[in-house]
Amino acid sequence: MFVSNNACLVPTTFWLTGIPGLESLHIWLSIPFSSMYLVAMVGNVTILAVVKVERSLHQPMYFFLCMLAIIDLVLSTSTMPKLLAIFWFGAHNIDLDACLAQMFFIHCFATVESGIFLAMAFDRYVAICDPLRHTLVLTRTVVGHLGLAALLRGVLYIGPLPLMIRLRLSLYRTQIIAHSYCEHMAVVTLACGDTTVNNLYGMGIGFLVLILDSLAITASYVMIFRAVMGLATPEARLKTLGTCSSHICAILVFYIPIAVSSLTHRFGHHVPPHIHILLANFYLLIPPLLNPVVYAVRTKQIRERLLHILKAMAQTK
Questions:
Q1: Where does residue 21 fall: left (phi above 0), alpha (psi -120 to 50 degrees), or beta otherwise?
Q2: pLDDT truncated to tens, each residue of the chain (317 aa)?
Q3: Contacts of the segment 258-266: beta carbons below 8 A, 24+ positions apart
Q4: How many CB atoms lie within 10 A of CB 248?
Q5: I need a labelling partner for 175 at 20 to 30 A (CA). Which of 48, 121, 284, 297 fits?
Q6: Closest by CA position to 292, among listed 34, 31, 33, 36
Q7: How far is CA 218 from the centre of its chain?
Q8: Cβ neighbours of residue 248 closer than 8 Å, sequence gap 6 or more
Q9: Residue 112, exposed/middle/buried by CB under 10 A (0-12, 13-18, 19+)?
């Protein structure tokens, strides 16, 4: 590391604090975090295995669900191993390139997940509003292309974030990042130089992804509800809405923690720092934890297949 004349640093590593203000509780905090991470890993791997084995689940909705499970595995694994290393071993140091890579994976796959939710909303719209053409429109090729488009959008949107930090911001006031992972704004606010471009780009991407995606998803469900209300009987309406319930729950699980974390970060100036950091970790951990539960509970085919597997395992013992 070098020190410039204006007392700014040119760091090769950063120091992640973990959960600031709760350092004495790190070892205890590791218990719920490691437990949730383990459950998230097992749950998402189980979803992937069940969909692969059960041929009746080889449908667009469940292919999107598998994409969601893979994204959740990447998201949680981008942060939790390092966080647990901080809790257990005091491994606070992180190389600059590793920090930027972590930043890319976190923000990129959060963006990809939002894109997959948008694709799932389109799938539900076609399935309910134009059911006769659903299998013609949502072929396996189309589903694959939609998943690839979500991935490419995430890479194109988020790729410039770490690149602009690497190329534009070389001087920092301190190496200490008051966070448990390399979040974009947590790193940018440490820089000595002009960060206007970085700030504007970050906010612009946040608007494009969260606001526009959520508006598009809302618009699709408005059209879905209008179609459902046109059905003849209440039983038909409930049955049709039931096919959307898992998707709606997953959307809420994804967007609500992000919205709460963003609002407290922007406007909760009197909220203690450890609350900010805990919320930021929860919005990366809660969706991977709850998505498998939501789909296992709300989706009959997955629930029945899981029960069949569990019964088979019990009989072999």
A1: left
A2: 444 445 788 999 999 999 988 889 999 999 999 999 999 999 999 999 988 988 888 899 999 999 999 999 999 999 999 999 999 999 999 999 999 999 999 999 999 999 999 999 999 999 888 888 998 999 999 999 999 999 999 999 999 999 999 999 989 999 999 999 999 999 999 999 899 999 999 989 988 888 899 999 999 999 988 888 877 677 777 877 777 888 888 898 898 888 787 777 667 678 888 888 998 898 889 999 999 888 877 777 787 778 877 777 777 76
A3: 258/110, 258/210, 258/283, 259/210, 262/206, 262/210, 265/185
A4: 17
A5: 284
A6: 36
A7: 19
A8: 221
A9: buried
Could you count the other beta carbons within 10 Å of the beta carbon of residue 234? 8
Considering only CA atoms, give the Rg of the chain.
22
